[in-house]
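User: I'm new to structure prediction. If I give you an amino acid sequence, what do you actually give back? Let's try with this one:
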Amino acid sequence: MAHNDVQTGERGTRRAMPRLIGALVIVAVIATGVVWLTVVRGSDKSAQDVATFTAQRGPLTISVVESGTIKARDQVVIKNEVEGRTSIITLVREGAHVKKGDLLVELDASALQDGKIDQEIRVKNTEAAFLNAEQNLAIVSSQADSDVTEAELKVEFAEQDRKKYVEGQYPKDVNEVQKRITLAKEELKRAQETLEWSNKLFAEKYLSETEKTADEIAVKRKQLEVDLATADLKLLEEFTHPRQVRQLESDVKQAESALDRAKRKAEADKRQAQADLTAKEAEHIRQQQKLEKILNQLTKTKILAPCDGLVVYSTGSRSPFMMKEPLAEGQQVVEKQELITMPTTASTMAEVGVHEASLAKVRAGQPAIITVEILPGKRFLGTVGMVAPLPDSTGMFLNPDLKVFNTQVYLDTNDSALRSGMSCKAEIIVEQFEDTVYIPVQAVTRIAGEPTVYVYDSKSKSMAPRKVEIGLDNNRMIRIVNGLEEGEVVVLDPPLKSSSVETATPGGATEPNAAGGKADGIDEQVRSRLDASKQAGSTGPAQGPAGAPPQGMPAMPGQTPPQGVAAPPTGQMPPGVPAPGQMPPGGMPKLTPEQQKQAQKAMEIFKNLSEEEKEKLKNMSMQERIEFLKEKMGGDLQQ
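Assistant: Good question. You get back a string of structure tokens that encode the predicted 3D arrangement of the chain. For your 639 residues, that looks like this:
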């Protein structure tokens, strides 16, 4: 039954792998179920059929082995700085040695050239508009100043007219009328005296009646002149003068109001012209900046070598599930995409991913032994230089719960056989014991929270549980601190009859027990470097206290591991079944170019998910994840 489940999982994996590799999670779940059924439930065997191991004493190396890639320790990463998408016109050959200033990549600049011409036209238009606005401001300012000056003169003239009338014209008119009255009265008096003499002469018959009548008329005329002049004076004082004063005062107020309006209008016109000038200037500067940006982008279409070095095409992604076309002429690239890396020194490093279950063991300064697949028989000594503070998120699509911390191991050698991009395996040495007792990890179980082994008595053909004190393990062998002696036989497949039993399983691929030494002298250097790392004050992983589970031993379902003990993500898998987070046998299936593009698009979508969407994705089933990505990709998912 378990075997059929494994086959079903493998077939599902092959079908779903082109659909964004998500079905690997199903394989991991099925494999975990197989482990539970075969290793835990199916382990109640008789004492006669059990496999045993004799406890051994000797040197034991605790190490963490992870796969990674050889990279240059110091390198220059050359990225595409042209905005948007563009095509590669010419490309330097990979592996070529170039000098500083040599052309590496030339990108298509036709769209930028067209944009440059259009932008130059816009700059000319905005420059003309800016100059017109500048001249308009000068004209408006001059006209506004003239209007204000004219209005000020009108106010001044109105004040002068009012003052002229009140202090000059009105007294003069009054004097003239009074003069007329005075002269008219004098003439009236003379005419009256003449008439009086004429009456006397007429009475004595010395003057004719006609003459007397003429004198009477003269008196009446003079009297009328006096009355008319008096009436003019009254009219001037009571009517003409008040009306004229009010008219002149009104003229002053009107002139002052006109002056205020002229000032306000002048200020408004100036501000409007200034705002128009500022806007035109800002638009001109903006268009100039756009032109400068286009010119700058044009310069970036030709990427020159910043230094002497070797040309290595960039992979652009650490994730093995990101299907990416190799860099070539005619290929489209996007902004900030890594194109070429150029090692600046001969020093190399190995970049590996350390699982969070082993993170407590690894620290900077620890020695490491590097082996390269295509260089069999060669070992290279290195030192852990840096452990990333945060997990790498690029592999979270395959399993959101899988957290791997990128770690850099600096190699001591500058061997020319090492090339960037080579696959390697790094064994980080955590601890070395010269003389200790050790047994296989799977021989240790946990009963009621206590590490326990089953000791086999060959005479009675029976087994008996015994509590032991354990130390560190290397996922293959575990150190026994106390409770077991050399030569005692333990059961490798202990009976698990209690629901509180926890079984220790290896945390990954077979780890080497570097007990023996080779003639290259690396083992001696490892021991001295490990001692130096301890003396430097680095805090190493503490050995497990009595009762603590060995490294790589997960808790049984329903139980919580003791505090400070991290359970590894993988168990001992049946042959042919990939562990969670590992590739299936045979590696990634070959995908069509269309499927590769879809996988790449899906990975980009996942990287841009919000934290809330990532949390929801963790709780989804495999089918729900596929439907979720279908929706994100607009239904464009090739089966």
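You can read the tokens as a compact description of the fold. Here is one thing that stands out. Residues 10 and 477 are 30 Å apart (CA to CA).
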